[in-house]
Each structure stands twice: as structure tokens, then as C-alpha cells.
Write a structure and sequence with these properties.
The protein is an alpha/beta fold. It folds into two domains: 3-147 and 255-439, EreA/ChaN-like  fold (3-Layer(aba) Sandwich); 148-254. Helix content is 48%, strand content 14%. It is built from 20 helices and eleven strands. The chain has helices at 3-17, 29-35, 51-68, 79-89, 98-101, 116-135, 150-164, 166-176, 186-194, 202-215, 228-250, 255-281, 293-296, 303-306, 312-319, 359-366, 378-381, 402-406, 412-415, 435-439, and strands at residues 19-20, 40-43, 72-78, 141-146, 287-290, 324-338, 347-351, 370-374, 388-391, 407-410, 418-425. The longest helix is centred in the middle third of the chain and has 27 residues, at 255-281. The radius of gyration is 22 Å and the shape is globular. The relative contact order is 0.17.
Length: 450
């Protein structure tokens, strides 16, 4: 029997296992049952630029908050940028709208968090928190897990310390001045430090973190000084500086080393956040995570994991066995907001139909436009191929080299606990539209087509 014939049989079996998504409130009832009492729900995305992934994650998250008591949304974003949003959704800070609160996201790729879907979700969080006191439920926070914001986190540490302890701020400024010799270019610093062409600031940033940890209790709380949340944010920024310094040094040693350091940082930040919120609530906190499939799905079930990479999904499963649910998202075709190269402007690009031999192609053959596929059910896992190609589009999309740039082998049933498939997706809309995004790509037949 041909591979196409096998796919047709498998697609037919999957058609009986999937749960169609119609846009109704009850779409994710099965997912809520699957979550049960788990304290960590990780929601992925197959690209950083697809509207439906953001929108469906928001729908799921709203139900987790309303029905399951989740108290935090932790995202693949830098801590200080997300913390500005956190202040806004708690009714603090100077921002008058969700769009303004997202103004801290100034680093490429802007559209990843400065888009209309995230703005709508942040506005919903603010309204939920405004009503939380009346309903006697805890407010929900918005936090970043990533580590790219070395200089912004340094600024946040110094600003906080100058307000509460000028002496400590002076010591911190002297330590962080170690980075001045790179002229503010952290990539140049990392390259020089990695190859012995410049001094490393590792000792200084670790000393600063240790001082904050030793003397954190000395910083008075209340009376406008420093709350427990502010102290936690201060320490997180200092720890981010430590890990970011190490990340930029190791990124020249190879992809696996820097990738693993980054995902360990995100997993550690998640655990620290959970512990902090649990102390504040005096009960175990429940956190939902928004990151790319490549971070959320268990790396041990992919060819990347076989080459030594680990990720947040794997680390969460290992640290919290039986207490997490990992949800992947896939699509077959459509449009996506992405750049042609790192640092380039956002474009609205066509997503090519999925390659033969991929999970996305198989799900397209199922013939259901949108569905949830639980993978804890034997009826699905028994018919899924043990291994198949899976597509991953980040902030850069290169369709001309799609097989090499965007596909890897994976065992989906071990990678995720469930998958949401949207057969045709459209590009997420940036808050700041670029000419390349508004124009979109010309048809495939351009300039010869009609």
C-alpha cells in the first residue's frame, strides 16, 4: 500500500478521535477535564505570527483563570517588558491602555507581543482583575520568562535600588559598569568574552545577585518602600543579568549550549514565580505558559532532543511529574507575520502547504478545519505514526529552504498531551503596521499570473 493510502487510513481513524472546534464556549471542555488539578499548563504555537494561535490560547487561558483558578500567565518574553504589563493589569503604573502597557516591548520582534490579539487579551486581564476584588478571587499576573533583556534588567535593578538604598545602588552600578567596555553591544561583549578578547563580567554579576539575596530582607516593605512583589521582581532582574551574561558568552560555543541555558533559565524563572505566588497566596499557585512549540513540547520526543537539546516542557515534566499539561498547535497553510531575516521588518508572508510526510499534512487530510486531538487517549496514539516531520516557524520564515529551516522529526504523542490544529491560519496583526505587512506577498504566479 502506498504512503498516501496509509495516510488516508490514518486520517480516517483520526477523524473519529478528534474533537471539532466550532467557536462555542464548550470547545475546550475535554481540555479542562484533562487539566484537572494540574498546576502548570503550557500552551504552544507553531509560529510566532499566527492570529489563531494567540486567539485560541487566550480562549483557553480565560477558561483556566475563570474555572480553574490560574493566577499567572508566563510568556516567552523578557521579564522587565512583561512586568510593565503586569503592573498595568494590576491597576498600577502610568499606562492608560493595554497598547501603552505593551510599549515596553521595543526589541525585535515587535509583533510577537505588540499585536492586536495580545492587546485584547491584556485588556481582558485588566478588566478581570478590576472585578476580582468584588468576586473575592485572586488577581492574575502577566510575567516574562526570557533572558534577552540584559541592559533593561540592569536599568531596572539600578532604578529599584536607587529608590530604597542609594549605597547598594552605587555598588551595583560599579559592578555593572564592567559591561561599559563593550560600548553597549552585548553581542560584541559575548564574542570578546568567549574568545578571550575581552574581560568577562561573570564575577561581577554573580556578586550583585548574591548581595541582593543576602540583604533582600533588609529592604523595608510597606510605606511606599518595597513590596514583596517588588523585591521578587528586583531579584529576578538581577538573576536575569547573570543568566543573560552567560547566554551571550555561550552562544558562540554552539546552538545547543546557548539553547539549553536559555530554556533552563525560563524553567527556573517559572518555578521561582510559582513559589513566590504560592507563598503570597498561601496555597499552590497555578500558572499557564505561552511559548513556541519548540519550548513547550517535550524535547526528548524530537530529533533536537536526541542531539542534546532540552527545553521548558521537558524540564517541567521532570520537575513536576503528573502536574503539567503540554498543548501543541499546528497549521497546514495560510499567512504568517514573520521577517525574512533576523532584525528585518515584519512582513505578511504566505505559509506554504505542509510537506508530504508531516503531521500537518496528515491533519489536513483529516478534513476538519479546526480540532482538538487529545493524545492521552489510546484511540489517537494507536493510529498516529510513531515519528513524522513537524513544522516550526519562529520570527523568521524562509519558505525557499523550508525543509531545512523549519522541519524536524518528532514523536507527537510523546511530545504533547494534546494538539490544537487550525488548518488555515492568518497573520497576526502588529500594532505598528509596516508597508511590507500591509502589502503582503504577491501571488505565486507573480508577475506572470492574472
Amino acid at each position: 500500500m502506498s504512503a498516501r493510502g496509509v495516510d488516508t487510513i490514518t486520517a480516517g481513524a483520526l477523524r473519529r478521535a478528534v474533537i471539532p472546534l466550532s467557536g462555542e464556549h464548550g470547545d475546550y471542555d475535554a481540555l479542562m477535564e484533562m487539566v484537572g488539578d494540574a498546576h502548570f499548563v503550557l500552551l504552544g504555537e507553531a509560529s510566532h505570527g499566527s492570529h489563531e494561535f494567540y486567539a485560541e490560547r487566550a480562549r483557553i487561558t480565560q477558561r483556566l483563570i475563570a474555572e480553574k483558578g490560574f493566577v499567572a500567565v508566563a510568556v516567552e518574553a523578557d521579564w522587565p517588558d512583561a512586568y510593565r504589563v503586569n503592573c498595568y493589569v494590576h491597576g498600577a503604573g502610568d499606562d492608560a491602555s493595554a497598547e501603552e502597557a505593551l510599549g515596553g516591548f521595543e526589541r525585535f520582534p515587535l509583533w510577537m507581543w505588540r499585536n492586536t490579539d495580545v492587546a485584547e487579551f491584556v485588556a481582558w486581564l485588566r478588566q478581570h482583575n478590576d472585578d476580582a476584588t468584588l468576586r473575592q478571587v485572586p488577581p492574575v499576573g502577566f510575567y516574562g520568562l526570557d533572558l534577552y533583556s540584559l541592559h533593561r534588567s540592569i536599568d531596572a535593578v539600578l532604578t529599584s535600588l536607587e529608590r530604597i538604598d542609594p549605597g547598594a545602588a552605587a555598588r551595583a552600578r560599579q559592578r555593572y559598569a564592567c559591561f561599559d567596555h563593550s560600548g553597549g553591544d552585548i553581542h560584541a561583549y559575548g564574542h570578546a568574552a568567549a574568545f578571550g578578547a575581552g574581560r568577562s563580567c561573570q564575577r561581577e554579576v554573580i556578586e550583585q545577585l548574591l548581595e541582593l539575596r543576602r540583604h533582600g530582607s533588609d529592604h523595608p516593605s510597606g510605606d511606599g518602600r518595597m513590596s514583596e512583589d517588588e523585591q521578587f521582581a528586583l531579584e529576578q532582574n538581577a538573576r536575569l543579568v547573570v543568566d543573560a551574561e552567560a547566554y551571550y558568552r555561550t552562544m558562540f560555543a554552539g546552538r545547543t549550549s546557548s539553547w539549553n541555558l536559555r530554556d533552563r533559565h525560563m524553567a527556573t524563572t517559572l518555578d521561582s514565580l510559582s513559589a513566590h505566588l504560592s507563598r503570597r497566596l498561601q496555597q499552590p499557585a497555578r500558572v499557564v505558559v505561552w511559548e513556541h512549540n519548540s519550548h513547550v513540547g517535550d524535547a526528548r520526543a524530537t530529533e533536537l532532543g536526541q542531539s542534546g537539546e532540552l527545553n521548558v516542557g521537558q524540564l517541567v515534566r521532570e520537575a513536576h511529574p503528573g502536574d503539567s499539561v503540554l498543548i501543541g498547535f499546528t497549521t497546514y497553510t495560510g499567512t504568517v507575520t514573520a521577517a525574512p531575516d533576523w532584525g528585518a521588518a515584519a512582513e505578511r508572508k504566505r505559509v506554504r502547504p505542509a510537506l508530504t510526510g508531516s503531521y500537518e499534512e496528515l491533519f489536513h487530510e483529516v478534513g476538519v478545519p479546526r480540532f482538538l486531538l487529545p493524545l492521552q487517549d489510546d484511540s489517537a496514539t494507536e493510529v498516529l505514526p510513531p515519528s513524522r516531520l513537524e513544522r516550526a516557524i519562529g520570527v523568521v520564515y524562509r519558505p525557499a529552504t523550508e525543509r531545512i529551516s523549519h522541519y524536524f522529526e518528532a514523536r507527537l504523542a510523546r511530545q504533547f498531551d494534546a494538539v490544537v490544529h487550525v488548518d488555515q491560519t492568518r497573520a497576526v496583526e502588529p500594532l505598528e503596521l509596516t508597508p511590507g505587512w500591509e502589502a503582503g506577498e504577491p501571488p505565486d504566479t507573480y508577475p506572470f499570473g492574472t
